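User: What would this chain look like folded?
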Amino acid sequence: IELKEQADGVILQIPAQGMLKLKDAQATLLVKTVLMNVRVNAAAALQGTSLADGAKYRLVVVRTGEQSAAAEAARKPGKGMKMLTSPVVVHAETISSDLAAPVPLAHVKQALQGEFADLTETTERVDIYRFDTATARWVYVKSKPNAKNSGLVFDIKTMGSYAAMTIPHRRFDDTDGHWAEQDIDWMVRRLLVNGT
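Assistant: Here's the prediction, encoded as structure tokens.
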């Protein structure tokens, strides 16, 4: 499904029978939006979830309303992160008898994948982060380059706001050429250390 129109969000509801057919066919549903692309692996996404007759699987992809708090957290001293995309909330749930229940994703690989397809920076300088509202901090999310090497693909294991960001000054002045330079860069990208 490709949505080319500019919108702040997309809500897609799929009837239980449709999801079960996708599951039986071992198919993946690709939802392409201006905000982010999302892949739903039906078999993996329904693991540990039952869909009763008349139930629906709902996928929500929306530009977050917490953009100012998220942007402020990215600019905090010592972080110096630059947002390359707007924060986007991805949420999956099942709906039965007008009751919504989140789809459990934490232990299922590739059930729900996000992709920021066309980034302005080279992918080796960009990482994906999820905004944790409880701590008001960004958390590193493991990602890999997409097939065109123009963006990043990542597993969505926790519902929340996701954004592609770069840390412009992630190199330390005194580690250039140091034997641990790559390890230090790895820790900076994961927000484990910071400094100048």
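Residues 16-24 form the longest helix (9 residues). If you want, I can go into more detail on any region.
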